[in-house]
Amino acid sequence: MFGSLTMLIAVVGLATLSAGSLAYALLYGRIQREDTAERRLDIVQGRAPVEAVRGRGAGDAARRRKSVQDTLKEIEEKQKAKSKRSKSPPLSLRIEQAGLSWSRRTFLLISIACGLVTFVVVWLAGAPAYAAAALGVAGLLGVPRWIVNYLRKRRMKRFLEEFANASDVIVRGVKAGLPLNDCIKIIANEAAEPVRSEFRVIAETQGMGVSLAESVAKLPERVPVPEANFFAIVVAIQQRAGGNLSEALGNLSKVLRERRKMKGKIGAMSMEAKASAAIIGSLPIVVMFLVYITSPDYIMLLFTEQLGNVILGSSAIWMLIGILVMRKMINFDY
Question: Is the pLDDT of residue 44 over 80?
Answer without folding.
Answer: no
